[in-house]
């Protein structure tokens, strides 16, 4: 996987100066235990496995829980076996992936649980770590969320700056959207009643209510015809997500899932394999 190889190259894992000092002992067999130091939703074990396989083709990571499960403090979530060299060189990279992805999955699960019993789904934004978007969006899925557009080429998302350019050009939204490729998803951010009216008149079926209070979202849901998706976004947290779900938003995007999720606390204890 490209992300794993890039992370190992960044850490220059194949040039581990410290482990070289072990000499021949570095090629002996070792075992490592990934231990949870907090309660979190597990995500990233397959990625950690790939880290060690890149360094030792015979390395093997055995999960003791499934992706998406909660784990408790002091629980061993996986065991990895391989050469001492591979385990020591890959330790930090594997932990970085596991801690980061588990943190995202945990925050996502908290948001998903907060809207349980409603029709709302939790999704991410494009506020991801450069180079890690694919993995971070995977972690959102593990946490129970759904994926949004992965890149600028996946869908049309008309936002505030596009509105500003449209006004400057003295054009209409309908005219602009008329040139969108057939079959491409079109989402339009609306921040006022006037923009809402123009978007609905243009036949937009996916509206993004950005930085709007739940009461206004509820009003816009009532104005939109059945089948129109209302997506709420802008500073929403697991603690406030329920209000937007009850207002009728069917999709709630939370940028914090990928840009502010606390890393899960995991450590790797390595010992010589007997």
Fold and architecture overview:
The chain has 274 residues and is an alpha/beta fold. It folds into 2 domains: 2-111 and 261-272, Alpha-Beta Complex (Aldehyde Oxidoreductase, domain 3), CATH 3.90.1170; 112-259, Aldolase class I (TIM Barrel, Alpha-Beta Barrel). Helix content is 40%, strand content 20%. It contains 11 helices and 12 strands. The chain has helices spanning 2-11, 17-20, 45-55, 84-114, 133-142, 160-168, 173-177, 193-201, 214-223, 241-247, 256-259; strands at 29-36, 40-41, 60-63, 70-71, 76-83, 121-123, 156-158, 186-190, 206-210, 229-233, 251-253, 266-272. The strands form 3 sheets. Strands 6-11-10-9-8-7 form a 6-stranded parallel beta sheet. Strands 3-5-1-12 form a 4-stranded antiparallel beta sheet, with helices on one face. The chain has a two-stranded antiparallel ribbon with strand order 2-4. Helix 10 (241-247) links the parallel strand 10 (229-233) and strand 11 (251-253). The chain starts with a helix and ends with a strand.
Quick check: average pLDDT?
94
What is the CA-CA span between the terminal residues? 31 Å
- Into how many domains do the coordinates divide? 2
Strand order of the largest sheet: 6-11-10-9-8-7
What name is given to the CATH topology of the largest domain? TIM Barrel
- Give the H and E element order: HHEEHEEEHEHEHHEHEHEHEHE
Overall SS class: alpha/beta
Q: Specify the number of helices.
A: 11
Our estimate of the beta-strand percent is 15-25%
Q: CATH superfamily assignment of the largest domain?
A: Aldolase class I
Helix content: 40-55%
The biggest sheet, with number of strands, parallel, antiparallel or mixed sense and barrel status, is: 6 strands, parallel
